[in-house]
Design brief:
The chain is an alpha/beta fold and 330 residues long. It has helices spanning 10-21, 38-46, 54-58, 75-84, 99-112, 126-136, 156-160, 175-179, 181-191, 279-296, 304-323; strands at 2-6, 27-32, 49-51, 65-68, 88-91, 116-118, 143-153, 194-202, 214-221, 226-232, 234-247, 250-255, 258-264, 267-268. The strands form two sheets. Strands 8-9-10-7-11-12-13-14 form an eight-stranded mixed β-sheet. Helix 1 (10-21) packs across helix 10 and helix 5 (99-112) runs antiparallel to helix 11 (304-323).
């Protein structure tokens, strides 16, 4: 598959490296960025073309797909014209920052007949896939509870590094929208739709930003299970990502890509923990799934609808924290 990249910052450079690593499966044809010199700099590394506008990139007939690596609030504005130009689209998380924008992407995907995936590389970690398979097979019994936790530290310089960071208009939120959206997606993949959420959020350790650096919520799933959701960039020294699922016949816990506890009835499914892929490997696995999905005419493992569902839950958390009342995701 022949790729183009929109946005040549850190994430765009990561995707360029991943595409280049998929020798024989993917080719990086062109990159685009409105920042003067940035596209040319990345293009020089990978020997591809550089464009300075979306229009020029999308007009190329030697591209099959584009990867959107722009600030979150610009995702729909870049994805919709790409789809209408006949390109398949990979969107970095989140899908966008409003449901209206997400719905624009989904409508354009349907109208164009092209394929969209939203990056959620943790779905492709072997540890999570083992848990997902057990849940889907009913091996944990009736799911009763679960949790998703991202406990991280981001210094003030992280938010100061870009004018769009920490703003509602472009970032769409803080710790939950950016760092936590991955585990929001995992929780939904295991437990299904959320019926109601009650949440709190605060700006506790940073200055000069509009959004939260800590959010906590209790969720009630449509299937009856209860869950806990937590995300923070205000936990000094923190570096943990934890997903757990408990049922009436078994449980599983994944900590930092390692399956640390996994019991089905009296059977212990692990011995000392099962290691996962490195983040870049999981990213590459998702790109391979996307390429295969397009080639086979099937939906990718992570769809635009999945991206919308994760966004809807994040926005419901924010609305509950703002109003002090339970909220049903839209």
């Amino acid at each position: 598959m022949r790729f183009g990249i929109v946005g040549c910052g850190v994430i765009g450079a990561l995707h360029a490296k991943l595409i280049a690593s998929l020798d024989g499966r993917a080719e990086l044809v062109a990159v685009a960025d409105t920042a003067e010199g940035r596209a040319a700099e990345l293009a020089a590394v990978y020997g591809c073309a550089a464009e300075t506008s979306l229009e020029a990139l999308y007009a190329r007939d030697d591209l099959d797909a584009v990867v959107i690596c722009l600030p979150s609030g610009l995702h729909a504005d870049a994805a919709v014209p790409a789809l209408m130009a006949g390109k398949h689209v990979v969107i970095e998380k989140p899908i966008d920052i409003s449901l209206a924008a997400a719905d624009r992407i989904i409508a354009a995907e349907r109208a164009s007949g092209r394929t969209v995936t939203v990056i959620s590389q943790r779905r492709f970690e072997p540890s999570f896939q083992q848990v997902k398979a057990a849940v889907d097979a009913g091996e944990l019994g009736r799911l009763t509870s679960g949790s998703a936790e991202v406990t991280l530290w981001r210094p003030q310089s992280y938010y100061d590094s870009g004018g769009w960071r920490g703003t509602w208009a472009m970032d769409g939120g803080g710790a939950l929208m950016n760092q936590g959206v991955h585990v929001v997606d995992l929780l939904l993949a295991l437990f299904g739709p959320v019926e109601e959420v009650y949440a709190f959020a605060g700006l506790l350790a940073h200055e000069g930003i509009e959004v939260e650096d800590t959010a906590a919520a209790v969720v009630r799933f449509a299937g009856g299970a209860l869950g806990r959701l937590f995300a923070s960039t205000a936990a000094f020294g923190g570096k943990s990502v934890v997903i757990s699922a408990y049922g009436d016949r078994g449980h599983a816990v994944v900590e930092n890509e390692v399956l640390t506890s996994f019991k089905v009835g009296d059977e212990d499914r692990i011995a000392g923990g099962t290691a996962g892929r490195l983040g870049a490997e999981s990213h590459a696995a998702q790109l391979i799934d996307f390429i295969d999905a397009v080639g086979e005419g099937r939906a990718p493992a992570v769809t635009s609808a999945d991206g919308r569902a994760a966004l809807a839950l994040v926005l419901a958390v924010y609305e509950s924290a703002r109003t002090g009342t339970p909220v049903k995701p839209a």
